[in-house]
């Protein structure tokens, strides 16, 4: 037995040998629980932001695919006619819209506007604008 922890009197022991009180343990566990809850909140936020980034990347991929398909068509192709108004195509959970304006901003150019929305209200729409000349 440690000599420091011997009883000084009948009911008294040295203060260094008493151990932790219940209140000290309760405070330590409370601080630990607050830290764990903060980390859990950060993990949930991280998962949500990762999901939003994935949806943004997928929507951008759909927009680029539509833009490349439109750019690969000949300049006089009927689908590139500016009188068609807003056109759309469903790609999975995403809807791609595009509108073509003839002779904008100058003659012999077409402005192609593509935007993609998702069925998820948390997803942000993606917009791509391109000007195509007749020589391309």
> What is the residue-mean pLDDT, rounded to a whole number?
87
Radius of gyration: 33 Å
What is the molecular shape?
rod-shaped
Number of strands: 4
SS-derived structural category: alpha+beta
What is the helix content?
25-40%
Strand content: 15-25%
User: Main sheet, how many strands, which sense, barrel?
Assistant: 4 strands, antiparallel
Indicate the low-confidence ranges by residue numbers: none
Distance between the termini: 93 Å
Which sequence of strands runs across the widest sheet?
Answer: 1-2-3-4
Count of alpha and pi helical runs: 1
Please indicate the count of domains.
1
Taken in chain order, the helices and strands follow as HEEEE
Report on this model:
The protein has 136 residues and is α+β, with helices and mostly antiparallel strands. It has one domain (12-133). It is built from one helix and four strands, in the order αββββ. A four-stranded antiparallel β-sheet has the order 1-2-3-4, covered by helices on one side. Strand 3 and strand 4 form a beta hairpin. The longest helix has 51 residues, at 22-72. The protein is rod-shaped. The termini are far apart. The model has no long low-confidence stretch (mean pLDDT 87).
Quick overview of this protein structure:
This protein is α+β, with helices and mostly antiparallel strands.
Outline the fold blueprint.
Layout: H1 22-72, E1 87-91, E2 94-102, E3 109-118, E4 126-133
Antiparallel strand pairs: 1-2, 2-3, 3-4
């Amino acid at each position: 037995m440690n000599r420091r922890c011997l009883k000084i009197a009948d009911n008294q022991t040295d203060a260094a040998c008493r151990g932790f009180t219940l209140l000290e343990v309760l405070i330590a566990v409370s601080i630990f629980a607050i830290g764990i809850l903060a980390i859990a909140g950060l993990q949930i936020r991280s998962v949500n932001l990762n999901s939003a980034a994935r949806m943004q990347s997928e929507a951008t991929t759909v927009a680029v695919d539509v833009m490349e398909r439109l750019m690969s068509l000949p300049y006089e192709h009927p689908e590139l006619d500016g009188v068609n108004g807003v056109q759309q195509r469903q790609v999975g959970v995403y809807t791609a819209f595009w509108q073509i304006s003839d002779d904008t901003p100058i003659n012999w150019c077409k402005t192609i506007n593509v935007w993609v929305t998702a069925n998820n209200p948390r997803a942000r729409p993606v917009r791509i604008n391109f000007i195509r000349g007749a020589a391309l």
